[in-house]
Amino acid sequence: MFTGIIQAVGRVSHLVESAGGDARVTIAAAGLDLADVGLGDSIACNGVCLTVVEKTADSFGVDVSGETFSCTIGYTPGDAVNLEKAMRLSDRLGGHLVSGHVDGVGEVVRFAPVAGQDDGSWRLDLRAPAALGRYLAAKGSIAVNGVSLTVNRVQGLEFSINLIPHTLEQTMLRDLQPGARVNLEADMLARYADRLLNYMQEQDKD
After folding, report:
1. Which phi and psi angles does 166 have, rounded to 5°?
2. If you write DSSP's letter for every residue of 29-64 in order, what string do you get?
3. CA distance linking residue 206 with residue 202, whole number of Å
4. Sequence-distant (≥ 6) Cβ neighbours of residue 176 within 8 angstroms
């Protein structure tokens, strides 16, 4: 489990493919304290929960399945990645509950400074896949490449997010361009509420 509060930005340094579309991915993570990370621990990489299978003082390796590549933006050598170690039960929940299981891939529509403001904030407009539309709500939460963010506006499948200077400085979202693809994870509570509502409707039909 994660909070969506990014702890460092790493970079994909190596990718070695294996049979079936799987790959061993090595991530350079000099800015992330790996002292308390052991083999088998989880680290969210651009919002995807991955298991550490190799570790050095400033990097770690993970095995990424073909299934993960098929439903996320994937990993390419040179890519910057948002990193967050799994939360402890005693940690402060500064963002929202994030499982590290990506629900779909969205697309950047627009990314520009907020008009009429000089505080350094930027507006990020995204388009979600149709299956995620039901989970989008103004003032609700969503994880974009693992970053816990608040939805400001929703119109159909397009939604807007405000990024403050701190978020731009501490994450790789600052490098996004229109047309870029991003990992999206819907709010966990929204998913459960949706399932409960659907279940109740199914029971009413019986």
Report:
1. -60, -45
2. -TTS--TT--TT-EEEETTEEEEEEEE-SSEEEEEE
3. 7
4. 108, 111, 124, 182
Number of helices and strands (H, E) in the chain?
Answer: 3, 12
Confidence of residue 197 (pLDDT cuts 50, 70, 90): confident
Half-sphere exposure for 83 (CA within 13 Å, toward CB): 29
SS3 content of the chain, % helix, strand, coil (to 5): 20, 40, 40
Q: 124 with 147: CB under 8 angstroms?
A: no
Question: What is the per-residue pLDDT for 159?
Answer: 98
Sorted by where each starts, the structural domains of the chain and their CATH numbers stand as 8-85 (2.40.30.20), 104-195 (2.40.30.20)
Q: Could you tell me if 53 and 39 are in contact, meaning their C-beta atoms sit under 8 angstroms apart? A: yes
Distance of CA 157 to the CA centre of its chain: 18
What is the rounded CA–CA span in Å between residue 108 and residue 147?
Answer: 15
Residue pLDDT, tens place only, 60-117: 999 999 999 999 999 999 999 999 999 988 888 888 989 999 999 999 999 999 977 7
Strand partners, 183: 105
| Beta strand spans in the chain (E) | 8-17, 23-28, 42-45, 48-55, 59-64, 80-85, 104-113, 122-127, 141-144, 147-155, 158-163, 181-186
